Structure formats: structure tokens, C-alpha cells
Amino acid sequence: MDPAAQAIAVVGSVAFDTIETPIGRAEDVLGGSATYFSLAASFFAPVHLVAVVGEDFPPSDREFLGTRGIDLSGLEVRPGRTFRWTGRYHEDLNVRDTLALELNVFADFQPTLPEAARKAPIVYLGNIQPSLQESVLEQFEDPTLVACDTINHWIETAREPLEALLPRVDLLIVNDEEARLLSGESNISRAARRILELGSRSVLVKRGEYGAILFSPESVFAVPAYPLEEVYDPTGAGDAFAGGVVGYLAATGERSDAGLRRAIVYGTVLASYVVEDFGPERLRTLTQDDIDRRYRQFIALTEF
Amino acid sequence: MDPAAQAIAVVGSVAFDTIETPIGRAEDVLGGSATYFSLAASFFAPVHLVAVVGEDFPPSDREFLGTRGIDLSGLEVRPGRTFRWTGRYHEDLNVRDTLALELNVFADFQPTLPEAARKAPIVYLGNIQPSLQESVLEQFEDPTLVACDTINHWIETAREPLEALLPRVDLLIVNDEEARLLSGESNISRAARRILELGSRSVLVKRGEYGAILFSPESVFAVPAYPLEEVYDPTGAGDAFAGGVVGYLAATGERSDAGLRRAIVYGTVLASYVVEDFGPERLRTLTQDDIDRRYRQFIALTEF
Predict the structure, then answer these.
(1) pLDDT under 70 in chain A at which residues?
(2) CA angle, B270 as apex, B265 and B276 as ends, to 5°?
């Protein structure tokens, strides 16, 4: 981590996931968008995690997040159980079914930021209700970069507060389906242009195993994903991608188009590692050398 | 076109297509894999087209191909009608339904190469029956580069002759679905490795609007597609892509990994133009400047 790195505050979900993929099954593994984001970003910058868990959240998971230097003062413990998700991936790993969903303590999540998080210049609004995202944003003293995620559910049920939020967003990070639903355009370039018109300063579209594409008023940047022979579990890849992107921007202070492009490649690298094992397991052993090596391999993969 | 360009001979289909897309409809437009390949390749190198048409093939289409310098001495005219295809694209342009298919004179296609074509050092075997592809390959005097396409139908019904052909192929160009079916592997990297084991020297996997990925024993190269706000008609994009790739290799004599990478970007550029209008219309007005400009735009799209 760069000693001059700026701090990131992330608000979102921490969960336990039960995951079936064609390769295997994992039960009650640490998950949630804010978890994957935080772990990935922690390789680049200090992270304040703002989320809620139940009384069942074990010391071992707290310790894992702690060893990555993630500040847990904003991890609220509420009476009840932690958010749980059970999903099954198809042979085509781009498709998954949700088999069970228990919101538990996450249902009443009213994020209140601890003092340290409020000062963070970099904000990542994970996919919670858009009005909550806005109320979180209000609590920051002076955010200089606001990145934001959302999901189809909020686009469908909370479009008004979501559209009200977009003009305060520097970087919206969504997948192609979400970009299409939000914009009403099936063509991804037109969808992105429409989202820029809605006010987001730039939009980064995640395309799973096909990579990602960034649209800003000045520039379009497209990257493939890093190809892997074994994908154990795609869960969290998109959140780790976002964590790598925002983490790099925090580490370097970069806001230029060139900097954002490098950030996206780092995001791609983090996502490629996460899917190499179930849940966030691979991030336990990941090193800075691993990240740098795969960044160079990504150059070799794409240069012409 | 480079004066030192090597000649390409292409064997495949020439057809009339009736196409519906969300943007419009075109009836009985010039189509077929060998047509799109030839037109795209003709911007780079001399092309000998080996195909069959019926007596209904009009002078105007012959003239169009002729103005692109394509040698039609191998375009056999047989009693009957030309191959016809009718298809409809979904709102998601990656999905299309075949509404009607009349093989007509193409059903009994027994390609015999004219003298000029036999001397071509570069061969493109479009998607015809694999035993026919092999019989065509036998007719060449001294081919130095053999590129080959196939489709699910032949993988399912003629796997044996197809597998017998692969060790004679330098570059197999297939889409991801075909790569999966041919290899029995759903992961695209593993699918490609299996195809290399079957004997093809390299395999270039087309992924439609998501780009392409090249696998060889030494190297993997991935590119996104060129993003467009309006796709009128995806028909022929994959064949024009192949035409650009093989055309560039013919123009430059390049066989290095770096050369093949540049060739793939030129293929991407040609594919991106073809989809800007129905059928091969856009290629009537396309110029070398257009190609060079978009090649530079593609660098801007992907560099980091």
C-alpha cells in the first residue's frame, strides 16, 4: 500500500454465502459486496467498512478483515442473524439462480458513519437502497470521489432517488444488464451515453467474463477480462473489480483518464484472483507481487 | 493494398440473405461467408473467390465484387438458384433465428479451383463440409498459411473429417459456442487448449460484440470489439473479421505473434464497419483511410 494513499469508506452488505458452482460447494462463507470491495481495495489504500452484521458474526471473520487493515469501527453488530444468500451457478458461469435470501439484520440497515469514515475523501456506495446511499453521502465531510453501484432491484423499485443521486456520482459501476435497465437502451454505448446524461460523470460497465468498458464524456476504454482455465466461484468478482479500481485511484490520487484506465486494469486483476477460489479465500494469500505480476501479464495479453 | 501482398484463395458460400433486425429489414442482399470474407480481405490483398451461384446471380453483384479486385474465375455458375438465407435478429443482436434456408446450387458444391487460385499461398476454408475443405486444400500447390472456419452443424455431423483436417490448419477461426462444442469444454481457455491439442496451430475465438481472443502455444491475446452506438445488421461480421485478419497477414507476410495481433485488430476494424449497414453495403464506400482511422481509434480505445 502506498503510504500517501487516500482513505476509502465503503457502505454495503456483509453476508454469509452458500454457493454452488459446477466445481463445488461452499457453505456460509464470508461474502457481501462491501466485504469483497473492502478486501480488494485494502491492497491499495486504507478502508473504512460501514455495514451491519448479526451476533453470529464470528471473531475469525472479523480478524480476517482486520489483518487486511480494514477499519471495522463502522461494522455495526445488531441483535439477530447476518444477511445470508444461497446461490447456484450454471455451467455457463454468467448465469446464476438465487436459491434463498435472508436479509436478517440487513433489512433495517441505517448506516451511521463513525468519525474516521466521515473524513474519508473517497466513497464507495455499495448496492443499498438509493435513498440510503444518499443519506450516507450526506454524512461525509468533503468527499472528492464518489463511486456507486446499484442493482436491477433498485432501478425497478427506487428509480427516483437513484436518478437524484446520479449527479453526485463520479463513477457509476454497473453490469451491462443494469446499464440497459437504467437507460432503457439495449445498445451498451447508447445506454452509457444516456447514463452520462442522467448526471453520472462516468460509467464503468462490467461484462463478467468479457471484461469491462468505461464511458466518460471524453473517452471510451474497453478491456477484456483476464482469461482463466479454472473459475471456481464468480461470486464477488464484480465487487472485487470495483475495489481494485477505486483502491488504485485512492492509492495514487489519479483522476486522469490514463489513471482511470490503469485503475480498471487493476480492478480486472483483483477480480481475476477472487474467482480462483470459493468466496474471498484467494484474497487471504494474495500478495502485492501476485497483483503486479498479473498486471504485467495483462499487458502481455492485450498489447499489439 | 500492398503491392507485395500475397494472394488469398477463399472457398465458401455466396448467398442472398433476407435479414430482419430491430432497426429494419433487407431483402435478398448479397451475402454468404465467402462474400464477406473476400470483400474484407480485398482491402489488403488479391483474393480468389471459389464458390457457386445460380443463374439468378446478377451482373451487378458480380461487378461489385469485381470492383474490389476479387478474382471471380472460381465463381462457378450452376443451373438453379443461389443459396438463400432468411434470418431475424433479436433485440439482443447476439441472438438470431434462421427463418428459412434454401441451399439450392450450394447443396452439390464440389469446389474445383482454377489455376490462379491453386497457386495462392494463403488459404481460407470457409464453413463447408470438412471433407470438402480437405479436398480443396489438396488442390493447392504450396499453401503457406491455412485458416479455417467451421460451424456447429459440421462439428456435430462430421467430427471425424474435421478432426482429421485440424493438424493441417494454422489458424482456426470459430465463435465461442463452436469452440465449446468442438472441445467439449465450457471454459473458453480450456476449450482453446483442447483445440490446440487436436492439432490446429492456433485458434482465434470470436465473441461477437465482446471481441475476440487468440490462443497459440506461446501466447494469448484478447481484444474487445469496437463499440458502436448503432448496429444495423450483424450479418457477416465474423466473416469480415476473418477477412481482415487473413488479409493483413497476406498483405504483410507477417507470421509473428505481434503481426497476428495487429491482424486481429484489423479484423476487428473490418467487422465494426460491416455492421454499420445492412448486408455488405458499408464495404462499397469503405476506404483505406477509414480503416486506418479506426485502427488508430482502436488503439485509443484499448491503450492504458
Answers:
(1) none
(2) 130
